[in-house]
Amino acid sequence: MKIKILISRIFICLVLFLNLQAALYFFFSPTRYISSFQLQGDTAIFVVQSIGVLFLMWTIPYIFAAIDPLKNITSLIQAMIMQLIGVIGETILFFNIPSSFFILRGSIQRFIIFDSCGVFLLITSYLLVRKLRNNAVS
């Protein structure tokens, strides 16, 4: 039982760490990412920093899920849904971006891969915890 919770916690923490890392990089080093989004002008920095703020907001359920995935299974479910929405939304964006924006398409494609890996890890965590929760209730 403890090993499953530990594995679940590790998977959640990995996704949490990567999301926090992206949030902090986007917020504190926005100029590194402006060209990835094919942005320009004075507002480009603020757009990238805004993405960082969104990533930071996004991490809250992950923190509670990582602390205790069994007790905070609702937070884990919320994190899974949020991550899945990210993949779906990014995929829709990707297919609607004109092919002439190849740099932006590449950036969005990296987000799709990144978030798809997160979905996989979170679903795996959920399945481990759900099985333990069902056994405890029985």
Layout of helices and strands:
Elements: H1 2-28, H2 44-58, H3 60-67, H4 73-96, H5 102-137
Helix pairs in contact: 1-2, 1-3, 1-5, 3-4, 4-5
Q: What count of structural domains?
A: 1
Note the main sheet: none
Strand content: under 5%
Mean pLDDT: 94
Number of strands: 0
Q: Give the overall shape.
A: elongated
Overview features:
elongated; 138 residues; single chain; mainly alpha
Would you write up a description of this structure?
The protein has 138 residues and is mainly alpha-helical. It has one domain (2-133). It is 80% helix and 0% strand. It contains 5 helices and no strands. It has helices spanning 2-28, 44-58, 60-67, 73-96, 102-137. Helix 1 (2-28) packs antiparallel against helix 3 (60-67) and helix 1 (2-28) runs antiparallel to helix 5. The radius of gyration is 17 Å and the shape is elongated.
In short:
This protein has 138 residues and is mainly α. It has five helices and no strands.
